[in-house]
Design brief:
This protein is of the alpha+beta class. It has three helices and six strands. Strands 1, 2, 3, 4, 5 and 6 form a six-stranded antiparallel β-sheet that branches. The chain binds nickel (II) ion.
């Protein structure tokens, strides 16, 4: 296992469209080592989520987890989501602060739909189909955006909400 280098804003890998992963590659475990490295990397940097393009691998897979300390107290264990597709179920937008390992030291308010349906595959190639709301939906949307070359700053409406998260 290895902690991977995280691509920072300005890297072209963050701005491209990532490629679909073949189900048979998942079933044969061909990406197992990479998934372990993603797990280790997210833990090392205390990330809530990590998308493969953030570690310079343009594939459609994200990893995320939701801890109890986040709003709502919902807990989602570390979850891999491969080839995610998202359907908005409730387009009502909430605004909340987001940050990103690829955009260090910054946070900003981002509007996101409140409720989504997520379809995709798990890391073994089994279908996933679930509904995510509130902070869980926000995390899935943020990470899935990375697969299409979008970072949260692109979605900021209230630009005055962009702030540093550290004191210089
Ligand atoms: Ni991010």
């Amino acid at each position: 296992m290895a902690v991977l280098k995280v691509a920072k804003l300005g890297a072209s890998v963050l701005r491209g469209r990532a490629s679909e992963i073949e189900t048979h590659d998942l079933k044969k475990g061909r990406l197992r080592g990479f998934f372990e490295d993603m797990t280790e990397t997210m833990a090392e940097y205390n990330g809530t989520g990590l998308a493969a393009p953030q570690v310079a691998t343009p594939l459609r897979v994200v990893l995320y987890e939701v801890h109890a300390q986040h709003r709502g107290g919902l807990v989602v264990p570390p979850t891999f989501l491969v080839n995610p597709s998202i359907e908005v179920l409730d387009a009502t937008e909430d605004e909340d602060l987001e940050a990103c390992l690829s955009v260090p030291f910054l946070a900003a308010k981002v509007p996101r739909p409140r409720k989504i349906r997520v379809r995709g595959l798990d890391l073994r190639g089994k279908p996933l189909d679930f509904v995510a709301e509130d902070f869980h939906a926000r995390v899935v949307l943020h990470e899935s955006d990375h697969l299409d070359g979008v970072v949260y700053l692109d979605r900021v409406r209230d630009r005055a909400s962009i702030r540093y998260t550290i004191d210089f």
